[in-house]
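Writing this down once: the sequence line spells out the residues, with the fold written below as integer tokens. This is how one looks:
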Amino acid sequence: MKTLVVGANGQIGKQLVGLIQDSGSHTARAMIRKQEQASHFESLGAETAIVDLEGEIEDIAKAAEGVDAIVFTAGSGPNTGADKTLMIDLDGAVKTIKAAEKAGVKRFVMVSSYDTTRQAIQEAPESFAPYVVAKHYADVWLRGTDLDYTIVHPGRLTNEDGTGKVQIAEEVERGDVPREDVAQVLFGVLDDDSTIGKEFQVVSGSTGVKEALSHL
């Protein structure tokens, strides 16, 4: 399986590309914004595609040609304003979904936010609400397609070392999860067709990733 990782230079995306390349059974194409980011991925043996998510759908679709799956891990980051949140986390996500359809790629995995319900929007702090809104509508758009989607809702992301142990369900108690473990979950999802059409929350836990996914 060849997977286009959108937002590959982010912390989760970079680890996912590494896992894919180390697997021996999958290959990655890293979609990145700048040429100077390419050397890291090329050293792993991964293909690269230089595409700006604020650009055209056709550019993303071209990057998706010939792949079997797309994983959207891109995000505007915590230090940008609501404008970038709108452009990347909503518009960038929707354009990637449309690009998948244009390129004929059926499998689509979305990294969302822990809770993107209407209630979460209403309860979010003012500074965080635009992010939740963006993720909410990106998720809504994906659910309305014919793509073989999975939506992953991670808890509070940390840079702690991953344990390979998680808790996964449609709803779990709010908690932390290392980015490394989220990458492991995303890789597990790509290998598990039973996750198609499902969405779930994930936090640190006591169950191995493969087993946790099998209980969905």
